[in-house]
Design a protein that fits this description.
This protein is mostly helical. Helix content is about 70%, strand content about 10%. The protein is built from seven helices and three strands, in the order H-H-E-H-H-E-E-H-H-H. Helix 1 packs across helix 2, helix 2 packs across helix 4 and helix 3 crosses helix 4. The two termini are about 35 Å apart.
Length: about 160
Amino acid sequence: MSQEDSASGIVLGKEFSTSLVLFQEAIAARLGLNATDYRCLEVIIRRGQMTAKALAEEARLTTGAITGIIDHLEKAGYVERLENPTDRRSVIIRPLITHRGVEKKLGDTMVSYRAAMSKLFGKYDADQTAAIVDFLREFVQVLKGQTSKLRDAPAIE
């Protein structure tokens, strides 16, 4: 790969990342949430019921911030707090909605998104689609690894 191709790939990666963040923020707003609330809801839906402490760790937020987020999610009807039978000082957060439920709530927005993605993937044969999926899986792993490195590095002053 030439240096020019690599540079354009980096620019495209940044554009992809920014577009994805903006898309998620738009979904959050449609659901009556802010981006952080939505990110936490996604974690809860993906992982299933979990303690508030586990959510704070995965979302990399303080337990105080998580309390407010859970308040928002509970008020919106997306989660419920349950007593933790093994630790009276903590609570378990249980999702009251699934990814399909979120999509249903978003209605035409997700129908349009699924149709556009189906059309996009329809442009590629099975081998090309497999390569794209493999690339995206690897891209996610690169992003996760680099995110950890950034979080562990000292702040720039």
